[in-house]
Design a protein that fits this description.
This protein has one helix and 33 strands. The N terminus and C terminus are likely disordered. Helices cover about 5% and strands about 50% of the residues. α1 links the parallel β1 and β2. It has one domain. With about 280 residues, the chain is mostly beta strands. The strands form two sheets. The protein has a 22-stranded mixed sheet that branches.
């Protein structure tokens, strides 16, 4: 294994180092990025096995180009995805500490079907503060919390939420198809929209402490939606319950075009089964 240390570099220096390393060795290369502007213009920005990338503490780090990870990125510091660039993850992106994914002037993260966004270290919060799309990949909080609070996150069919830590959605987000959880998904705020075609089906247990369910949602058979104390919770959706809705707090159900002040129906049961259908406003 060779180690290519990339630090305090100007524009395109990383690209040149990666190109040189990849062209001169068939052995694994570990790239280390500690500061500077990652601009792979003119060079394929693809990390493939057995090569890996370590993102180390140091100066501010900007990803200023499209980059595709098909291997392993281990991040012990925050990066900023810059100026409309997209980081595509079909391998493992490991948040190894209470570090973030951030944006500067618009940045995107796409987690593919084979992608794993993992938090493996740190008992605090790692914020995903950029435009995030999960195309059926895995989000795994082994420890601490991964929080989606930037807004308009997309979790598509096959999305999986795993780990002993918490995964928190605290702003507007959309869900579609089968949503697998290991009981560590927490919905705390925002408008949480199930797809209008096919809806969103909870294929695991989830916790709901605030925000509004919109669109079409189904609690799958044998699964539990835990409506717990916290902020106000609204159902402004078609909600089908094939499992259990365990409500230890009020749930306000919209009907027709009523305003929030008129949405006075309170759902107080500790558990229910069967089908609950509410017309969306």
């Amino acid at each position: 294994m060779r180690i290519a240390t990339l630090h305090t570099f100007p524009k395109n220096v990383i690209a040149a180092a990666i190109a040189a390393a990849m062209s001169t060795s068939a052995h694994a290369v570990t790239f280390l990025w500690s500061t500077g502007n990652f601009d792979v213009s003119g060079v394929p920005g693809v990390l493939v096995p057995p090569d890996t990338l370590g993102i180390a503490s140091g100066g501010t780090k900007y990803l200023n180009a499209g980059f595709a990870n098909q291997s392993t990125v281990t991040a012990t510091d925050t990066i900023y995805v810059f100026n409309g660039s997209t980081l595509t993850n079909d391998g493992t992106y490991d948040l190894h500490g209470d570090v973030n994914l951030a944006n500067a002037y618009g940045g995107y993260f796409v987690n593919g079907a084979t992608g794993v966004l993992r938090k493996s270290d740190g008992v605090g919060v790692s914020d995903v503060n950029l435009t995030f799309t999960n195309d059926g990949g895995t989000i795994e909080a082994q420890t601490g919390t991964i929080r989606f609070g930037y807004g308009n996150a997309v979790f598509n069919d096959g999305s999986r939420f795993q780990g002993a830590g918490q995964i928190v959605v605290s702003s507007n987000a959309s869900f579609s198809g089968s949503i697998g959880t290991s009981g560590n998904l927490f919905l705390t705020a925002g408008t949480l929209t199930g797809a209008t075609t096919g809806g969103a089906v909870l294929g695991g247990d989830a916790h709901w402490s605030g925000g509004s369910l919109a669109g079409i949602w189904t609690v799958g058979a044998g699964r539990t939606l835990d409506a717990r104390s916290g902020a106000v919770k609204y159902v402004n959706a078609t909600l089908s319950n094939q499992g259990t809705i365990a409500a230890t707090d009020d749930v306000f159900v919209y009907g027709g075009m009523r305003s929030p002040t008129e949405a006075s129906t309170t759902f107080r049961e500790t558990s229910t089964s069967g089908i609950l259908t509410v017309a969306a406003s």
